[in-house]
Amino acid sequence: MADKPAIVLVHGFWGGAAHWAKVITELHRRGFGSLHAVENPLTSLADDAERTRKMVRQIDGPVVLVGHSYGGAVITEAGDLPNVTGLVYIAAFAPDAGESPGQISQEKPPAAFENLAPDSDGYLWVKQDKFHESFAQDLSEEEALVMAVTQKAPLASTFGDNVTAPAWRSKPTWYQVSAADRMIHPDNERRMATRMQPRRTIELDAGHASLASQPGPVTDLIEVAAVASPG
Questions:
Q1: 3-class SS letters over the chain
Q2: Per-residue pLDDT tens listing for the chain (231 residues)
Q3: Is residue 67 within 8 Å of residue 88, measured between CB atoms?
Q4: What is the sign, positive or negative, of the torsion defined by CA atoms of 1, 39, 97, 196?
Q5: How far is the CA of 208 from the CAs of 14, 17, 157, in angstroms?
Q6: Which residue among 10, 158, 173, 225 is the one 20 to 30 A from 62 at the CA level?
Q7: Are 73 and 17 in contact (CB under 8 A)?
Q8: pTM for the whole thing?
Q9: Which of 52, 43, 7 is nearest to 157 (CA)?
C-alpha cells in the first residue's frame, strides 16, 4: 500500500462525502490504504478549495485529487499544491481561468436545469420529487430517495464563483464523461475534457451520479491515474 498515492475524493453540489461510498470500498479492496473524502461547506469556491487544501496539506507524499460535479471546480482551484500529482474528473466541471460552473451551464443548459429551486435563505436545491430523474436516474428509487433527502444544498452564489488559476493546465488529468448526464450537459463535459487534453477520457452510459451507479469503471480510471502518479 505504501507505493500507492493517497486519494482525496471531493464531492459536488447536492451531495456529501458519502456519495463516494461505493468508490471508497472498491479502492480499499484494490489496496489503496490512504483514502480521504473532503466534506466541503459549499459556501463559496474559495471556502471549498481551502477546505480541500487543508486536507491535502495533512498528507505526506503524493496525492491524486478526484472531483465529482462541482468538485471538479474545487480540484481545479485547489490542485496547485506541490504534492498533488494528478487530477481525476468524474462527470465534473473543469473551468478555465475566469470561468464559473454557472457560466458553463448557461452556455449549454443541462436537461434538469428547471428542477433546481432556490430557497429564501439563498440555498439552491434539487426538487426532491425530481431528484431521481435529474441526478441519479440509473440508481434505484431507494438510493435516489436517500440522496434527495440528504442532499447538501450549496449557496446559489457559489455557481458564479470563477476559477482563478486552473490546476489542470499544469497537472496530469483524467476525465470521465457521463453520456446521460442531466445535471451537466454531456457536450459540456466533452468540451471541457477535450480542452484539458487528458491522458485518458472514458465515456460511460450513466447519469450524473456515475460514482454511485458505475463505481467499477470510475475506480478503474482513478487507479489508472494513481499508477501514473509517483508513489
A1: CCCCCEEEEECCCCCCHHHHHHHHHHHHHCCCCCEEEECCCCCCHHHHHHHHHHHHHCCCCCEEEEEECCHHHHHHHHCCCCCEEEEEEECCCCCCCCCCHHHHHHHCCCCCHHHEEECCCCEEEECHHHHHHHHCCCCCHHHHHHHHHHCCCCEHHHHHCCCCCCHHHCCCEEEEEECCCCCCCHHHHHHHHHHHCCCEEEEECCCCCHHHHCHHHHHHHHHHHHHHCCC
A2: 458 999 999 999 999 999 999 999 999 999 999 999 999 999 999 999 999 999 999 999 999 999 999 999 999 999 999 999 999 999 999 999 999 999 999 999 999 999 999 999 999 999 999 999 999 999 999 999 999 999 999 999 999 999 999 999 999 999 999 999 999 999 999 999 999 999 999 999 999 999 999 999 999 999 999 999 765
A3: yes
A4: positive
A5: 11, 16, 21
A6: 158
A7: no
A8: 0.97
A9: 43
- How far apart CA 196 and CA 190 sit, in angstroms, is 10
In angstroms, the CA 117 to CA 114 distance is 8
Residue given cell 420529487 in the structure block: 129
The C-alpha cell at 80 is 496547485
Contact 117, 124 (CB under 8 A): yes
